[in-house]
Design brief:
heterodimer, A: 173 residues, mainly alpha, Rna Polymerase Sigma Factor, Chain: A, Arc Repressor Mutant, subunit A, 8 helices, B: alpha+beta, Jelly Rolls, Phage tail protein beta-alpha-beta fold, 13-stranded mixed beta sheet, 3-stranded mixed beta sheet, 37% strand
Chain lengths: 173, 295
C-alpha cells in the first residue's frame, strides 16, 4: 500500500482505503454494466474514487455506498458518450462440465453470444439492476440501498429485464 | 395450446432458465491492472492534486500577505504624512503679532517672538497646544484643551480667557475669565481663577500668586506693556521683541527692578519711558536695529 505524502491525515487515508477495498469491484462492475467497456470501467473507477476523496469532508459513512453509485452514474452520464454496448462477460471455469452434454460447443458459443447481445439490449437502468442481482448476487434490498431506490423500483426493473430476455429467446435460437 | 407450441414453449422456457443460470455464472472481464495497481494510481492522482492545491493555497496566502503588507505601508505612509503635515506651527519673529483661530474655534493671539504648534488632524484626540513665548487664549465656551510649555508646565482650560507667558524659565499664567489649572512637574495642580495669576521666574521656584488689575485681556494685545517690579532685563527683552531690535546692555541689570510701561508705537518714546526713570542712557544705531544701553 503506497503511502501518500499530501496534506491529509492517516485516518483519512485508511478510511478511504477501506471504502476502496469494499466497493472497488462493485463500482467497476457497475461501470461495466453501464458501458460494456473494461478500460472505460477502470477509468471510471479512478474518477469516482477521486471525486469521493475530494468530498471526503462532507461525507457521512451511512451514505457513502449510495454516494459512490451516484457519482459513478453521473460520471458516466456526463463524461462518456453513449455507445453501442458489446458485452464480453467471462464464464466461470467449471461451467462447461455442468452444461448439457447434448449441446455442442458451437451451440454453447452461439447461446453465449445471443445472451450477451440480449443483455446489451436491456435498457441501462434495468440492465444494471439485473446484472447486480445475477452476477454479484446482491439482494433487492441491497441494490435498492446502493442506487438510492425503493425495493419496488428494483422489482420493476428486474421484471423489465427478465421480460426482454424472455422475448429475445422466444425467437428461434 | 398445441403440442408443437407447447414443445416450443418448453424449449423457450428451458432456454430462458439456462440463460438465467448462465448470467449468474458470468464475471465482469478482468481489468488489465490489478486492484492494488488501481489503488496506487488513485493515490498518485491524489498526491498530485494535493500538491497542486498546496501550491495554490501557498500562492494565495502569499498574495494575501503581500497585499496586507502593501496596505500597511500605504496606511502608515498616509498616517505619517497626515501627522507630519497636520501639525500646524505658527512662529513669529520679533516685532510681529498675530491672531489665529484654533480647530475648535477658540482664538489665540500670539505675541512677538513666540511659537505655537498643534495638530489639526486628530485635534479631538489630542487637544494639546505647545507654546514657546507668550499667547493669549480666548477659549470658546465649553471647549477644553491643554497648553504645554517648556519644562512640561501645563495649563488646562475649559472655556476661559487666559494668557500664558513662557520664555525660558520665566513662566506666568494670567486668568481673565473662568479658571484654569496649572500643573508643573514640581508642584501640585494650582487652580488659577479670574483676576489672578501665577508667576515663577525660576524653574524650581514655587509659583507666586499675583493679582491682576480688572482688565478684560492682557495689555500686550493692545500694544501696551506694563511692568510691576520686573527685572530690567525682562523689560528690555520685551522691548527687543516688540521693536525687533537687538539690545546690548553694558551694565548689570538683573537685580534692578522696573515698574512702569511702554507702548509699541515709537521706539524712542518707549526707551525714554524705561531708561529715564532708571537713570540709564541709550544709543540707537543709524539703521534703528541696534540699541546700546549704558549708564
Amino acid at each position: 500500500m503506497t503511502l501518500p505524502a499530501g496534506n491529509y491525515s492517516k485516518e483519512e487515508l485508511s478510511w478511504f482505503r477501506s471504502i476502496f477495498d469494499q466497493y472497488y469491484e462493485s463500482i467497476r462492475s457497475f461501470a461495466y454494466y453501464k458501458t460494456g467497456d473494461v478500460d472505460l470501467a477502470d477509468d471510471i473507477v479512478q474518477e469516482v474514487f477521486l471525486k469521493l476523496w475530494n468530498n471526503r469532508n462532507d461525507i457521512k459513512n451511512e451514505t457513502v455506498k449510495s454516494l459512490l453509485y451516484t457519482i459513478a452514474s453521473n460520471t458516466i452520464k456526463n463524461h462518456f458518450k453513449h455507445q453501442k454496448i458489446v458485452f464480453n462477460f467471462q464464464k466461470e471455469e467449471q461451467s462447461s462440465d455442468t452444461f448439457e452434454e447434448a449441446d455442442s460447443a458451437l451451440r454453447q458459443e452461439e447461446l453465449n453470444k445471443k445472451l450477451q447481445d440480449a443483455l446489451a439490449e436491456i435498457p441501462e437502468k434495468a440492465r444494471e439492476v439485473f446484472l447486480m442481482n445475477r452476477i454479484e448476487g446482491l439482494t433487492y434490498n441491497d441494490i435498492a440501498e446502493r442506487l438510492g431506490l425503493s425495493v419496488k423500483a428494483i422489482e420493476k426493473r428486474m421484471s423489465e429485464a427478465l421480460s426482454i430476455i424472455r422475448s429475445r429467446i422466444s425467437y428461434k435460437i | 395450446m398445441s403440442n408443437e407450441e407447447k414443445i416450443l414453449n418448453d424449449s423457450n422456457e428451458k432456454d430462458f432458465e439456462k440463460f438465467l443460470e448462465m448470467t449468474s455464472k458470468f464475471k465482469v472481464p478482468a481489468s488489465s491492472q490489478s486492484k492494488e495497481a488501481a489503488w496506487d494510481k488513485l493515490v498518485q492522482s491524489i498526491d498530485q492534486k494535493e500538491k497542486q492545491e498546496a501550491k495554490v493555497v501557498m500562492f494565495a496566502s502569499r498574495k494575501v500577505w503581500y497585499s496586507i503588507a502593501a496596505s500597511l505601508v500605504v496606511l502608515f505612509t498616509i498616517a505619517a504624512l497626515t501627522y507630519r503635515y497636520s501639525t500646524v506651527e505658527i512662529e513669529l519673529s520679533k516685532g510681529e503679532i498675530t491672531n489665529r483661530i484654533l480647530p475648535d474655534g477658540s482664538e489665540v493671539q500670539l505675541n512677538a517672538d513666540s511659537k505655537i504648534s498643534y495638530r489639526k488632524f486628530g485635534w479631538l484626540l489630542n487637544r494639546e497646544i505647545k507654546l514657546n513665548g507668550e499667547a493669549f487664549f480666548s477659549v470658546k465656551h465649553g471647549n477644553k484643551f491643554t497648553v504645554i510649555t517648556d519644562y512640561n508646565r501645563k495649563v488646562t482650560v475649559t472655556g476661559t480667557k487666559f494668557n500664558v507667558f513662557a520664555r525660558g524659565p520665566q513662566f506666568e499664567v494670567n486668568c481673565f475669565e473662568g479658571s484654569v489649572i496649572v500643573e508643573t512637574p514640581t508642584t501640585k495642580p494650582i487652580s488659577v481663577t479670574k483676576g489672578t495669576g501665577i508667576n515663577s521666574v525660576k524653574i524650581e521656584e514655587e509659583p507666586e500668586q499675583i493679582l491682576l488689575d480688572s482688565i478684560p485681556e492682557p495689555t500686550w494685545t493692545k500694544g501696551e506693556f506694563y511692568f510691576d517690579n520686573t527685572p530690567l532685563n525682562v523689560v528690555f527683552d520685551e522691548l527687543s521683541r516688540q521693536f525687533n531690535v537687538s539690545v546690548d546692555i553694558r551694565i548689570e541689570v538683573e537685580k534692578r527692578m522696573y515698574t512702569g510701561f511702554f507702548k509699541k508705537d515709537q521706539l524712542i518714546k518707549a526707551l525714554d519711558l524705561v531708561c529715564i526713570p532708571m537713570g540709564l542712557t541709550y544709543q540707537i544705531s543709524t539703521d534703528s536695529t541696534h540699541i546700546t544701553i549704558d549708564k
